[in-house]
Amino acid sequence: MVMVHGEFNLVASEQTGLRGDSRSFAAGMIMGMAQRDLGPGKLQLRAMLSPDPFMGPEGYPLLLATGETADGIDHLVDRQHPHDLFMELSASYSLPVGDKGSLFVYGGLPGEPAFGPPAFMHRTAAMDSPEAPISHHWLDSTHITYGVVTLGFVQDRWKVEASTLRGREPDQQRWDIETGDLDSRSVRLSVNPTDNWSLQASWADIKSPEALEPLVDEERVSVSALYGRAFGSSGFASATGAWARKEKDGETLDAWLLEGALQFNDAWTVFTRAEQVDQAELAPGNIYTVRKVSLGMIHDWRLSNDIKLGVGALINGFDIPSPLSASYGDTGGGMAFVRLKIG
User: Fold this and answer.
1) pLDDT in tens, 176-205
2) How far is it, in rounded angstroms, from Cα 220 to Cα 205?
3) Which of 64, 149, 171, 215 has CA atoms 20 to 30 A from the CA of 140?
């Protein structure tokens, strides 16, 4: 079996206030997967590429977002970093065990370790929004890890996984493939109690994730619930609820996320997201709990069985506590975008 799918967005972003900015950019991904029987098991190969590096090293304006660096000197603040060209180059092999079980091994350079819910661009409740969550570096920033090996076991609706991985996040050079020691670890337990629900709990011990704080390690925990069901004759409803905690350098930082999408039919989809994050990088030396909500809609036109063209927009609202709010002024924001979806 061979499968290809992709999504490309042309986005105009406006973030208002004293720390806001405006920017037009391209984002998205294209992914290929090949699978075949090999001996007693199955071999799967995956590759995923992104146009994000064309944004430039500073990415796009996104108020209250932090994480990674543009120049190797300063933290990116109030901006979402671009993802690397190579988002995944991986291979996995699974062996059946009994009637409903399987044992598998997965390796990626880069790849995704056993931590957190699926990355936001793969969650059904989030994939129609072109903006990254501000909780990204709590829940799913490990989805691009330059060196990961995972061993897992699946039994009916249960799955347990353990990964060894390179803890350092990708650097500001977005076009290359990085290497390093597999110095960190994670474990995840997942269960699908019904056909509509997917639950997970995970833990990670990550060594030196930030290049600008090389002596600081992080311990992360996360739990999440994903829900999906048919809506009407041709629609779909989906939702995600998630919590994650970072503990680093004596700080405990939590993040909460609720997101949902309602696809009325093949043409119209409404999506929303609400987040609360404890941020330590918005004003050095202080931790502030900030909140953000987004609401958007997209209309798609089907060009063929496998290709859709969509036009959408979203608006943002922010809750920023004093005295941090003085540095932001009158905040607001939104995006307008055009999307090409393949597969």
Assistant:
1) 999 999 999 999 999 999 999 999 999 999
2) 7
3) 215
Q: Letter for the amino acid at 207?
A: K
**Cα–Cα distance measured from residue 144 to residue 28, given in angstroms and rounded to the nearest whole number:** 14
In Å, what is the CA distance from 251 to each residue of 216, 220, 257? 11, 12, 20
Based on DSSP, count helices (H) and strands (E) in the chain, helices before strands. Answer: 2, 18
Q: Is residue 271 predicted with pLDDT exceeding 90?
A: yes
Tokens at 121, concatenated: 């661009």
SS3 of 120, please?
A: helix
From 6, 127, 142, 147, select the one nearest 83 (Cα to Cα). Answer: 142
Rg (CA), the chain: 20
Q: 343: which 2 tokens? A: 């597969």
Residue type, 159: K
**Closest of 202, 197, 207, 62 to residue 136, by C-alpha:** 62
Question: Partners of 119 in the beta sheet?
Answer: none
pLDDT at 206: 97
DSSP class of 79: E
Structural domains for the chain: 2-342 (2.40.160.10)
Give me 63's structure tokens: 């108020």
Contacts for 71 with CB less than 8 Å, ≥ 6 apart: 57, 172
Which helix (H) or strand (E) is 231 found in, with range? strand 218-231
Question: Are 134 and 278 a contacting pair, CB within 8 Å?
Answer: no
Measured CA to CA, the distance from residue 199 to residue 241 in angstroms comes to: 10
Nearest to 170 by CA among 204, 132, 144: 144
* Residue owning tokens 């990626």: 108
CB 82 within 8 A of CB 56: yes
Q: Are 21 and 332 in contact (CB under 8 A)?
A: no
Q: How many Å apart are CA 15 and CA 29, to the nearest integer?
A: 24
Neighbouring C-beta atoms of residue 275, cutoff 10 Å: 22
Grade residue 299 by pLDDT with cuts at 50, 70 and 90: very high
Tokens at residue 36, please? 């075949």
Q: Is the CB of residue 170 less than 8 Å from the CB of residue 147?
A: no
Structure tokens at 235: 């629609």
